[in-house]
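## tool: complex_structure
## caller: assistant
## args:
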Amino acid sequence: MADKEATVYIVDLGSSMADCHNGRIESDMSWSMQYVWDRISTTVAANRKTWNIGVVGLKTDETDNPLAEEDGYNNISVLRELGPMGMAGLRSLQEKIQPSSTDVGDCLSAIVIAMEMIQTFTKKLKYNRRIFLVTNGESPLGEDEEAVTEIAARIKELGIELTVLGVDFDDSEFGFKEEDKTEQKTANEVSLKKLTDACDGQFGTIAEAIAELSVPRLKPVKPYKSYEGPLTLGDPQQGAMIIEVERYFKTHKATIPPASNVVLQQNHATQAGDGGAMEGVQSTGGDFAAVSNVRTYKVNDPREPLGKLEVKLEDLAKGYEYGRTAVHISDTEHNITKIETTKGFAIIGFIPQDNFEPFVNMGDSCMIVPQKFNDEAAIKLSSFIHSLHELESYAIARLVMKDGKEPLLLILAPHIDLEFECLYDVPLPFAEDVRSYKFPPLDKVFTVSGKVLNEHRQLPSHDLLETMSEYVDAMDISTYEMDDDGAAYPPILVKYAKPDEALEQAAKTRLDDLIETAEVKKVPPKATGRRQRDKVVPRSGLDIDALLKQPEHKRAKIDSNNAIPEFRQILNTSDSEDAVKDAAKQMGQIIRDLISDSMGDLNYERVMEDLGVLREGMVDFEFAALFNAFLLDLKKKILSGELGGDRRELWWMLKGKGLGLIDNLTVESSNVTPEEAAEFYKK
Amino acid sequence: MSYHHSQDGQEPEEDEIDEDIYKSQKDALLFAIDVSKTMMKAPPASDDKKADTDSGLTAALKCAYQVMQQRIISNPKDMMGILLFNTEKSKSNDEEEDRGNWNYPHCYVYVPLDVPAAEDVKRLKSLVEDGEDSEEVLIPSKEPANIKDVLFCANQILATKAPNFGSRRVFIITDSDNPHMDDKKMNEAAAVRAKDLYDLGVFITLFPIGQKDSTFDLSKFWNDIIFKDPMAELTDPETVLESKSGNDGLTLLKSLIKNIDSKKTPKRAYFSSMPFEIGPGLTISVKGYNLFQRQAPARSCYVWLDGEKAQIAVGETARTEKDSTRDVEKGELKKAYKFGGEYVYFSPEEQAEVKKFGEKTIKIIGFKDRSLLKFWMAIKKSIFIYPSEEGYVGSTRVFSALWQKLLKSKKVGIAWHIARKNANPQLVAIIPSRSQSDEKSGTPYLPAGLWLYPIPFADDLRVGPELKAVRTTNELTDKMNKITGQLQMPRGLFEPHRYPNPALQWHYKILQALALEEEVPEKPDDATMPKNKAISRRAGGYLQEWADVANEALAQHQQEKAVKRELDGEDVEEPQPKKRARTTAAGKKNDEDGGPATTDAGLKKLVNSGDISKMKVTELKEVLAVRSLDTKGRKADLIERLEQWVEENI
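## result:
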């Protein structure tokens, strides 16, 4: 992992590499470079200073290498000395990888040069040393057999791993054989194979290496020990069980690298988008600058013009919020709210395995093994593991990883296989972590009067239960491998995105039966939302809409103190479009008044709510034009300061919450396109 | 700033998803408590320790006090208020804001609706615990309050103090099932005001308090006031049972707490209208809920002490270009990935393309025996799903059929899940939870339904150390079995409600004491501590026997090992690795005189053997410092520097 690496890639740039072979429409060079580029850019992406890359060009027009003086080292150029590689290095290398106009160059000599480079660079230090040779093997090798043996011995001596990847080399394991191969190539393949065999290297055809690229590589992570110490049962002072253990991650969510915020650097701002040679990626070196965050702090102060006073961080004390009260904690007491704990791992009790449900788990799993080289701990832990296994129990434990760390509750499960035993653990919830939402039962229906129904349209019929059962059994994938460890391994990332086709076909008739019995109907999109205008009545069924029409409850005008209910009631009960339009106008005025009367941002949330309700109503009634006209006018008034001063903050809020024009995707009759609706937000 | 909402750097996935995006995801809860004579009537005196001591009113206030304390911890951004009615005195929201034209006789705003402050807690506490009623508010009015006024008062409080909140609720606690004695006009006026609240988006829950010999009859009045919660399921009658002394053997207080607890958290969906594809061509709609949410103490904040009152300083982030410190406008920000030390820019479209795995979905790819889901295949908490008819009519019965089948055949579904557009896909196992009434349920505190249980991808697996098992003996396991058998948890269940989070509780206990200027408690209650006394009482002897047998087994094992070594012709004299032998810090076992690699020879040995990489960073820095070398950089850099030094100097 953190090991240092020195890798030299020898790439064949001979003129014949520019040709296409065996039905490919890609030149041999760009085809085989796929593999090299993938390896190099993976190294670049890792951005490690201790991973060094060197590149040697074979069959180059020029000769540029440390052994150039000697015989047989012609037409080989060091394109890049060993060293860590960044984007700049990658770009300059890209320019150098071009087919030459010669086919002369000895790949064994190139290997010798690569060996020299590695030896000079790594000296005797601890390195992973590697040479990759990519060639079409079409040029004569200048060395005899004795030299091959010598080179192999030297490679072994230096501890270098040699990999030879040939364009269309025969590989019976991979299942490739090139017909009408040149004699030269056949001979070279034999020699190179001999070399790799003699130095325990790898020999293969490039097609295999490229095929392997489609399998995602897993990034190995070193074992992380989260706890090391005793696992106890009972009071350690009085003859308790004490077992020295270590705890490691078993699973841990691998993070997806996040994108960072950057800005175009001002002095480079005009060059964006040119010069980037990498396919599909627009980039030029150094155009972007990182963004740093500067925090400023403000407090309320009515004496300030905007009601806020900026304060310096040095003048602030540490504290916590208790409700809306600020509780100040002095520096000397900064740990006062932290519970004092001592490192430890103690069993609380046991439960039968059947009484644990996996979905109670709160996070990733860990494994608990005996302390290394401690037979006593190993035997004791083993007896604990076997006991859990035999009694089909799990243990509940309290873990404090280090002194002062907060206690955790874990559930421990036994794991035994041929060579290996351990406990697995997952974290459990505390009382506060569980939300007690109530849901009606799924197998019966209670009526309002408390009666229990076992047959109801919400409950499955006997037939439905039957067809579901048959379908589930038909779609069984218990025998499908989940790969070695049982976890999902993604050879193609979306392999599990849909059911297996063969299985799906086999279960087709079951599914058809199920679909027929289930009689599920899609709710047409029109009926979602409040448009359906179902009459809402209280539990008693009293018709309140009718009450509202009686003279003593009738409301002539919308009361600004009760605007939302009254507006909604007009929309729900009125029969005339005019009444709805009139109500909308009244709401508009109420909204404008709220803005004008607002002290600072005091009324803004009410404005948002009223506006949201108004918009909703106008969408339901498909009065897009009316609402859009109102909103355009409101925007103008807000931005011009007509509504009691600077209201720009309100405008930002409206924008943030998506309270914009009604477009013709939402209401067909609207004459505003989604693009125009988006344009509306731009100032 | 609070843990309730997602913390910086946490995945945005944790945010609740709601359709009404213009609303803020906050909850306002207003208690409306009846202060009538009957509510104030104390229960008859009794010698029984378990007998009731609380009147209806005290029980209601105690509940409100408890809920307030809990909400400060669990919902620190949410509001709460207390409105008393049928009081002799009247007081509306804020006296200074009272414009006089709204009048709510016999309604008294005791705690104005807001995020609770320490003073609110203190005032309520002294009222509840010490009966200190300095405002003389707990005096019943001669004339009862008009319920229409109570409801409109609640309407005004919620509309102005909690505008645009995603959830607004009124909890009415009363023992009167017919407040207006069948007066039709007054009942109708109240019903109209109740509809106003409904249309405002406020949901009323009634907590009836039962009187001794009569049952609370909802049909007399309250059924005109209470509407169905639009968030509730179709089949949910959602009646709150009456709280009554003696119900299930509980006191009135406990009975009321139980009823309120079940309603105190507003039910928020984590996702809704989620298509659940059971097979190609068969899709139903479900809603998802976060029934588990890890709560941790809120992070510290900055307090400004120079004003009249301590105040929290609100932080704002300004962005600047890193090197030039030029201010950056929001619109200038672009997203880029770091690659080879440089930024590679991705346009918003390219960004979206990178994350594109399709529309939101739960798509079943097959079913497996439940036993194939291994204990360790855990990666993060599960989401509860429950059917909803909003997208597909018939969803509930199909869901129920699937749920019943999975339970019956002990199977789980395996599904491909995308929580929302552009979210990262996740493989989930679909696991049924049993009915709460099911005696076999290991989780009687959780509702019946299905759970989306995320299972790890290959990238999420870690390797542990390589070890060869040293096996127990049958005798030793038998001894351990006796212990395991003795120490079963109560009812054989793990019940989270028995274990409050000690760190969280302590944090807020101390904060509360500081905020209320009370004495700081000395020792935390920690229910997670093992009950060692009980353990040694029940299994002390067995523990001793186990330890003895373990020693025998160990001795035997070591003997076998020695014999084996002899047979293998190895050096029998080789000392056993010491019990606490540390092989990691290579330097330590080197020499006594001054520790790690102080001598050049020692250092050279470490470098050549490669053991130098086993040294800790602090140790490496020490070694570097001794030789006046630069101590900055990562571990690999430090090692390299030392290696180079050895190369050049020794």
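## assistant note: The mean pLDDT of chain A is 85. The radius of gyration of chain A is 37 Å. Handing back to user.
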